[in-house]
Design brief:
The complex is a heterodimer of chains A (45) and B (393).
Chain A (H helix, E strand, L loop, with lengths): L7 H35 L3
Chain B lengths: L1 H9 L1 H12 L2 H20 L4 H14 L9 E2 L5 E3 L2 H10 L3 H13 L3 H5 L4 H6 L2 H10 L5 H8 L6 H12 L6 H13 L1 H12 L2 H4 L12 H18 L4 H15 L4 H23 L5 H4 L2 H31 L20 H13 L6 H26 L1
Helix pairs in contact in B: 3-4, 4-12, 4-17, 5-17, 6-11, 6-16, 6-17, 9-10, 9-19, 10-11, 11-12, 11-21, 12-19, 13-19, 13-20, 15-16, 16-17, 20-21
The chains are: A mainly alpha (45), B mainly alpha (393).
């Protein structure tokens, strides 16, 4: 529920944004690498 | 004469109900009926996600009839007087996250990962377009508690089932803001064709929108298509075990589609199962749209923050594509519009980008690339939801 206005919370939570975005790029990066490898191994030439 | 007196006495309940309506804040009910009407209008007149907005709109009217028997009614002492069917459905299918997860099997069966597997690098835009979730979380944290802000941020996943699961896990199904989050998530998904184009146009030049990206059709082996959902489940499950049900059900649906030996189940999941759950999902979510829960300052704020989340998601994808273009050689540049398709609203967002490309140049076909990015947004949004759960559960 609305718990008043606390502008400092924005700054306090910025590290979560940074770590969240880094984590998602890493996970997607891993998936890209695996998919590329799968394509190389299993696609007929 | 006695007969007439008795009849009038018996009809007294009409007057009682009418006075109860006014006493109970009749204007609030009228406002909710109007909101329900608008949702039904958007669904029928503008064909905006009618499968969700129509049941949601009708359900809104249904639960905002004073003492509605469709939802649980309690006495002043908190004792349950009437058990409503929609409340029962809510507890059976939404509070325990069953409906959104079952719907994910259907969605997974509908998705063709082919365009994505052909060009896996496109997946990076799915990650970039989750920026809105985390940025909106920071914005929302100025007004709400941390778990509430995180649940509001996930509206930006543009993915109703993920928003429901995250909000339920972080806040519980009986939180006052869970209903508003669900409604915002589904309503904005329907509004993607209205929200995204102005943001894309504001962030790109005409020259950028005219960039052509030739599509090279490559063959993807059946084994790759079968292994892909299994690997995604394992990778996402290891990183964020909290999201494994979400990603697992989505990928299970896709595995049914791609395995090649369950065509009948795949067809059922895509059509019958998805349709059945959607019917119940929309009208059951509406059980949370009671005037007393919905007409609050919180709700307006959540709707505004949800809109921000969609805008920043779109901006995140577009700006990331522009950033990549700074390093790409001439002739290999990316049309930054496809970055906007990295949100989960599938296939609306992919189509929006494709149409915008055609509008700029009738020979600029971006459908395969934008659908590929859109599909990656589906995966990335679930992973983002899992990360949010990992951070705040």
């Amino acid at each position: 529920m609305f718990s008043g206005f606390n502008p400092m919370a924005f700054v306090y939570n910025l590290p979560y944004m940074l770590s969240g975005m880094i984590a998602i790029f890493i996970v997607i990066g891993v998936i890209i690498v695996i998919t590329t490898i799968l394509n190389k191994i299993f696609t007929k030439k | 004469m006695d007969f007439l007196t008795n009849t009038f006495e018996q009809l007294g309940f009409l007057v009682e109900n009418l006075s109860a309506f006014v006493e109970a804040g009749g204007w609030k009910y009228l406002v909710m009926w109007a909101i329900g009407g608008v949702l039904i209008y958007l669904a029928i007149r503008h064909d905006m996600e009618p499968t969700l907005l129509l049941p949601l709109g009708f359900g809104t009217i249904l639960v905002n009839i004073p003492s509605s028997g469709a939802i649980n009614q309690f006495s002043e002492t908190g004792e349950l007087i009437t058990e409503g069917a929609l409340s029962t459905l809510f507890n059976a299918g939404i509070a325990n996250e069953l409906f959104p997860l079952i719907l994910f099997i259907g969605i997974g069966a509908m998705i063709d990962f082919g365009p994505l597997l052909t060009n896996p690098k496109l997946m990076i835009f799915g990650a970039a377009a989750q920026f809105g979730i985390f940025f909106t979380f920071c914005l929302a944290s100025m007004f709400f508690t941390t778990p509430e802000a995180a649940s509001i941020g996930v509206i930006g996943a543009a993915d109703g089932p993920t928003a429901i699961v995250v909000a339920n896990k972080l806040l519980g199904s009986d939180s006052r803001i869970t209903g508003a989050i669900m409604v915002a998530a589904y309503s904005y998904m329907a509004l993607v064709p209205i929200i995204q184009p102005p943001v894309i146009k504001a962030l790109t030049t005409k020259k950028e929108r005219l960039i052509k990206m030739p599509y090279e059709a490559k063959e993807v082996s059946r084994l790759t298509k079968i292994l892909f959902p299994i690997i995604i489940t394992i990778v996402a499950g290891i990183v964020a075990p909290e999201s494994v049900a979400l990603i697992g059900f989505l990928m299970f649906g896709n595995l049914i589609r791609e395995c090649g030996v369950l065509n009948s189940l795949s067809e059922t999941a895509q059509k019958v199962l998805a349709n059945l759950v959607t019917i119940f999902l929309g009208i059951t979510i509406a059980s949370q749209m009671e005037a007393s829960k919905f007409l609050r300052l919180d709700t307006l704020l959540i709707l505004a923050l949800g809109l921000f989340a969609f805008i920043f998601d779109t901006a995140g994808g577009v700006l990331f594509a522009k950033l990549l273009n700074l390093f790409l050689p001439k002739g290999k540049k990316i049309n930054p519009m496809i970055g906007a398709a990295g949100i989960s609203a599938f296939p609306m967002s992919g189509r929006v980008v494709h149409k915008m490309g055609l509008k700029e140049d009738p020979q600029n076909f971006l459908l395969m690339q934008s659908i590929g990015v859109n599909v990656s947004g589906q995966i990335a949004s679930v992973i983002a939801g899992g990360l949010i759960l990992k951070f705040f559960m």
